[in-house]
Amino acid sequence: MTALAMGFLLIALLIMLVLLGMQIAYALLGVAFLGIWLIRDNIDLAFRMLELTTYSGIADYLFATIPLFVLMGLLVSASNVGRDTFEVAEELLRRMICGLGVATVAANTVFAAVTGVSIASAAVFTRIAVPEMSRHGYRPAFAAGTVAGSSVLGMMIPPSLLLIVYGVLAEVSVGGMFIAGIVPGLMLAGGFMVMLIMITLLFPRFVLTDPERAGIRRLDRDHRRMSLGQMLAKLTPIVALVILVLGGLYTGFFTPTEAGGVGAFGALLLALSRRTLDRKKLWQVMKQTGVISVSILLLLLAASFYSRMLAIAGLPNAIALLVSESGFGPLGFMFFYAGIILMMGMILDSTSILLIMVPIAAPIAQSMGIDLIHFGIVTVIAVEIGLLTPPFGISVFTVQNTLNDPSVSVEQIFAAILPFIAVMVLVLVTVVLVPATVTVFL
Question: What radius of gyration do the chain's Cα atoms show?
Fold first, then answer.
């Protein structure tokens, strides 16, 4: 059997192991070790490469970005700024059609700029937005779907853990990935808002339990208004943190790692000033930071070892040759690749897809002259769609479990997020066809 055939069989084995429930890090390490051993018929070489990868795989200053941004996100979640952001958005947009739905998207957009984790956004806004939307006459399933659909903004609007992971795997600038994610992230947020307004106008009973009563309540002038001072007091901390971190990063004053450190310190001061961080909660935040960071770093180490196995098998070069001979141009390859990612999103989680596909696809894209930062944004949007599509749909399950309402089933939430998936597919196609949406600030 040739090394190339062995490589394809090993990829199939990897996907099978993940589907059977093996953790992706162990599956990557095991398959990569087995592959190097079988292809070179030398178990000592497999051990030696594992040793070299373990040392060099994460021995880089850049990798400190991961625990620092994770810590910042957890501290921000602990300081309850998500609730304040939603309350201000609710006040400003109350009289708009589907105002609370638009407010949820707006609050998620701001919250995403300091957390970078979709699951955190889903959990926070399920507790805040869904009860408030239900109280104002929105269907609970639609409210839950709005939270799940808009939570994916956490993976696109920088800083984002998926953008960091892609940058490491594809060996491109993490700062460049952050800058490239701005316009597509805002396109997604704007698309969600327009879609919510349109769907409320066209299909009001899909959104509201009683459209007539909800309309009267929306125009109620006896509503107690929040003063400008109160709104500024609620928004100033999170806006200051966003400006501090992203402003310093985009102006070149901070490196991504320094931005993570400054952001984590700013989030700590914010949580302490609000007195939401006692010793017990601080310990939980630190423990969670360690667990999440170590698991991500282990995944990246395993992915690095897997990439070396693929290189030894000659798989990226062989697939690149196959793609070029099949008549696929760069554009055709991008759509074909995005389609594969979308299908994998139905059965695998986002990190697993990146770890399996990027080491194979990034060298092929580069050989075809595709900008790897543009390719990365396309990859992350496609992976984000997988966070919503059944049967995996981790954001949907997070919302449903956090909500814990027997009257709102997973199937109802999946139905409510279909319009969000449509918007995301439209943005994905636009980004593929118009690279300037990614490169405009680069």
Answer: 22
Domain boundaries, the chain: 3-439
d(CA 219, CA 223): 9
Q: Determine the residue type at 307.
A: S
Q: For the chain, first and last CA: distance in Å?
A: 45
Question: What are the pLDDT tens digits along the chain (442 aa)?
Answer: 676 678 778 888 888 887 787 887 888 899 989 988 988 888 898 898 888 887 776 666 777 788 888 888 788 877 877 778 888 887 887 778 888 889 889 888 888 777 766 776 777 788 888 888 888 888 888 989 998 888 888 888 888 888 988 998 898 988 899 889 989 999 999 999 999 999 998 988 888 887 777 666 666 655 556 777 888 888 888 888 888 887 887 787 888 888 888 888 988 988 888 888 888 888 998 998 888 788 878 888 888 888 888 888 877 777 777 777 777 788 888 998 998 888 887 777 777 788 888 988 998 898 888 999 999 999 999 988 877 877 667 778 778 887 877 888 888 888 889 999 999 999 999 999 999 999 877 6
